[in-house]
Amino acid sequence: MGTSFGRGGATTFQQDLQNSDCIVIMGSNMAENHPVGFQWVMEARERGAKFIHVDPRFTRTSAVADLHVPLRPGTDIAFLGGIINYILENDRAFKEYVVNYTNAPVILKDDFEDTEDLNGFFSGWHEDKNGYTFETWQYKGMDLHGAAGQREGESSLAKMEAFRQREDALKHGEPPNMDKTLQHPRCVYQVLKRHYARYTPETVARICGVKPEQLLEVAQAMCDNSGRDRTSAFAYSVAWTQHTFGVQMIRSAAIIQLLLGNIGRPGGGIMALRGHASIQGSTDIPTLFNILPGYIPMPHAKAHHSLKHFIESEGAKTGYWGNLDKYTVSLLKAWYGEHATDENDYCFDLLPRISGDHSTYRSMMGMIDGKVKGFFCCGENPAVGSANAGLQRRALASLEWLVVRDFCEIESAAFWYDSPEIESGALKTEEIPTEVFWMPAAAHTEKDGSFTNTQRLLQWHHKAMDPPGDARSELWFYYHLGKKIKALVDERGDEPHADAIKFLTWDYPEKGAIREPDAHMVLREINGWDENGDALPAYTKLKADGSTACGCWIYCGAYKGEENQTARRKSRMEQSWVAPEWGWSWPDNRRIIYNRASADPDGKPWSQRKAYVWFDEVKGQWTGYDTPDFEKTKKPSYTPETGAQREDAIAGWHPFIMQDDGLGWLFVPNGIVDGPLPTYYEPHESPVKNLLYEQQSNPARQKFPRPFNEYNPSPSSEHGGQFPFVLYTYRLTEHHTAGGMSRTVPHLSELQPEMFCEVSPELAKLRGLEHGKWATIYTVRAVIEARVMITNRVQPIRLNGKTVHSVGMPYHWGRRGIVTGDSANDLLHIALDPNVHIQETKGLTCDILPGRRPRGKAMLEFMEEVRAKAHLEKA
Amino acid sequence: MEHERPVWPVMRQLTDGDPLALGSAAQSETTRKWRGRIADAKVTKSVCPFCAVGCGQLLYVKDEQLIQIEGDPDSPISRGHLCPKGAATRTMVQSPMREYKVKYRRPYGTKWEELSLDQAMDMIAERVLKTRRETWESKDEEGIDINRCYGIASLGGATLDNEENYVMKKLYTALGIVQVENQARI
């Protein structure tokens, strides 16, 4: 979403789904996994909206849908491509929106070549580097700036650097070569049309295993419910992200929503449904390797020698990223206070440099390879929850020291005496060197703080009581650990790069007997202050001269007026349905972002029914039900001077203010490493050959063939038939991720007591599986067992005269907790989306047998046999 | 005067102005004295810790004990609802499996040992500095300054507060630790 629209967050908010005329949920089982949010889908349906669920499995979400389309796991890009093709072939796009608000009219460089021309590759592919460079994907007359292009492994979760690399070549705010009639053969609209021409209902049906009529019904419903007077929405979850082409699935939805004019408008948008209380927050203020707070890139060894260099290469000249200098300097002032001065580049050199992909899967492999020796694990359980859990546990067993912070003794703390490897004898307790500190964590009821929910909304939770015993918040743990480290560094005086620690501002007020740091004051630092030390009201007030400090520029305003805005709790009964006084939403308390697009180019609502934000000619400002996501007094007719910079370069009719051209990107010229347009590929492991191209899988995907992460043979290989079934994992209503917060809870354990797998009656017959009895499921990585649930909810997919069976299973179980069971993640491999380094859990291959799995030594022997059949070497 | 009310409920329905027996007419002397378990508990506004819908929660504390968690009807997102997980939040906080003391396993050890919180904090601080020193990278292969500690990694954050993620990222970055990750990729 970052690359298409400019920000890596849901474009709308859950309550707004009620305004939708058509909702398509895909890659999500919202009714079961976000049940309370799902009420807004039901509200829309009560009001007459059409609700469609496209998903391999018939779930409770499907049960209340007007239409359920079961498709083969991992084929969503083909299905969505079919919708795009329908829109373009039948001329159903919302033309006025597309021509003015997207890059459809922009003419591309002459040397761009499509996957349709190059059999599954775009131009710019480098076989030796296993990746693309972006020169040929550019707008005509707007070339790449300097030595940009893909830097190895350096891609941000939000991809916000995408648009920062191009020369300042806008003419009066518009790209220099455009054809607003959309007829030029090299304009984005026509390129798109050719790219998707083969995604006909018949071809899509053959890839996805759906009926052509089903695709047409979905496409027609979306088109009929889009335009001036109607809007359609998408909602997705991790069944879109967890693929080796996950980003491109979301991009496909972005293209549809831009073509149909559904972004920035009530009842429209793309609702990203996230699975942890503050997963959006932990991306905004990232515990992620590649970004600093507010999606500022981490400095890179090869590219960022000085602050000036960093700003020049990562900042855009036009659009709001033109203010990267203000955001970065203010962050450094928050972290390094009086030590950060203009003379010393505001301590920019104290920041460490990244040099590639340092994501978690790399770290875990680094542990096995002896490079990573110490590990903190806080509220996460990789021994159950990460793909290829066996490799994760081997990584933990290779460490020098490990700190696990959780409520209970989870599998990631107990791996050294209780794990499948210990059970089979593959690892022995007395041979595992890891020193383990298990630290009891405080619950949300025992600490103050804010979560950022799935709609970018920060909500404060107040402490109700002190944490019991040694239980402490992470805030306490890291603050006091930092204090101890600072004291040791001061005392010793010979630690490397010690100024980075010594100069760090680290003085939050402490409260109560346990000396808990004041979370309000941490939020105040995140919000930032001006030269007088007063809390800043908005990010537009930040400066690059060192006079403002701000820990995360997109959260600036959360402590506006010295008041914790995230703690606002004005009842929904006392305010409008938008509820702007409940919590605080980034940016600047805007609930639907890019909402300037809810008005036409002249600033008037597209229709009264869909009015949201508009330009009030009398007052000379933008107004409406939400905070305008636009400069308040910028006229719709505002035409920038050629050469204008920062936000001044964004025309009054361009709603996507984070993009350097202010446009929604149908075609992404820079920033997505596996192609400017989504293209259909098979999952990394698939029993089916790619029908569209010779190229089977995403060529740019990250692969890690190494011991304990081997891959099942591909369908084209000699032993390809060994793993004939598709495997995918999912969640249940009653459990949470790796189970640390649910398998330890009596009620939830009673509701869902046992690990199971879902298979169709046909597959059960084929393999002799009995309902309620045990099944053994295996890949070349591992073998596990699960109770069999035979159900029509999982249907065999028929395509090209072939039947593809699937095995679905929840991934919540492990060996600890009130209820225990084998972990589905043991079966999974590590092969990642190249943009965001997310693993493929929704479409691998496996085999299934009746009965319980072998145990002890017999398990090792079984695996040797499986591997021998797949012609892999001995483990 | 209370004892003069009609004894028969149907009579009370007629005399109390409560013809449908939804209020006082349905009450007896005993039930009128009943009070909710949470009636005089202190209420704290909170947010559900499970998924990212962000349902409002009300925490009820009485005698230093968390006695109930309910959905917050004021919330514009959840309108008072909680799902099975959210409704089980109190049991999660008070899980029989939850532990409150630091546990320590020494290298190659075969059992857990006890450790005071303060001692554990001191030991962890020492481990961090030792590994930082041992795995410090000041320059890359081309002689470019990178100033980082490659020997320490971190995982977790999506279940934590923004303020916690902030101090984590701030401290790690100051220590030169770049392998900082969370559930966003899991």
Tell me what the structure shows.
The complex is a heterodimer of chains A (875) and B (186). Chain A contains 25 helices and 29 strands. Chain A has 875 residues and is an alpha/beta fold. Among the domains of chain A are: 2-272, Dimethylsulfoxide Reductase, domain 2 (3-Layer(aba) Sandwich); 702-869, Beta Barrel (Barwin-like endoglucanases), CATH 2.40.40.20. In chain A, strand 2, helix 4 and strand 3 (67-69) form a beta-alpha-beta unit. In chain A, helix 5 runs antiparallel to helix 8 (201-208), helix 8 (201-208) crosses helix 9 (212-224) and helix 15 (360-368) packs across helix 17 (389-396). Chain B has three domains: 2-33, no CATH class; 42-93, N-terminal domain of TfIIb (Single Sheet), CATH 2.20.25.90; 103-185, no CATH class. Helices cover 28% and strands 24% of the residues of chain B. The mean pLDDT of chain B is 94. Classes of the chains: A alpha/beta (875), B alpha+beta (186). Strand 12 (435-440) of chain A pairs antiparallel with strand 4 (103-105) of chain B, so a sheet runs across the interface.
Number of domains of chain B: 3
H/E topology pattern of chain B: HHEEEHHEEHEEHE
The coarse overall form of chain B would be: elongated
User: How far do the termini of chain A sit from each other?
Assistant: 41 Å
Largest sheet of chain B: 3 strands, antiparallel
Q: What would CATH call the class of the domain at 2-272 in chain A?
A: Alpha Beta
CATH superfamily of the domain at 2-272 in chain A: Dimethylsulfoxide Reductase, domain 2
Question: What's the helix and strand layout?
Answer:
The complex is a heterodimer of chains A (875) and B (186).
Chain A: H1 2-5, E1 22-26, H2 30-33, H3 39-46, E2 50-54, H4 60-63, E3 67-69, H5 76-89, H6 95-101, E4 125-126, E5 131-132, H7 188-195, H8 201-208, H9 212-224, E6 232-236, H10 238-241, H11 246-259, E7 270-272, H12 281-284, E8 291-292, E9 296-297, H13 307-314, H14 324-336, H15 360-368, E10 374-378, H16 382-385, H17 389-396, E11 401-406, H18 411-414, H19 420-424, E12 435-440, E13 449-452, E14 457-461, H20 474-492, H21 499-502, E15 510-511, E16 516-517, H22 519-527, E17 584-585, E18 613-616, E19 621-624, E20 702-703, E21 725-730, H23 746-751, E22 756-759, H24 761-767, E23 774-778, E24 783-790, E25 797-799, E26 802-804, E27 806-810, E28 831-832, E29 842-850, H25 857-869
Parallel strand pairs in A: 1-2, 1-6, 2-3, 6-7, 10-11, 11-12, 21-27, 22-24
Antiparallel strand pairs in A: 4-5, 8-9, 13-14, 14-17, 15-16, 18-19, 20-28, 21-29, 23-24, 23-29, 25-26
Helix pairs in contact in A: 5-8, 5-9, 5-11, 8-9, 15-17
Chain B: H1 9-15, H2 29-33, E1 42-47, E2 56-62, E3 65-71, H3 84-87, H4 89-93, E4 103-105, E5 113-114, H5 117-134, E6 136-139, E7 145-155, H6 162-175, E8 177-181
Parallel strand pairs in B: 7-8
Antiparallel strand pairs in B: 1-2, 2-3, 4-5, 6-7
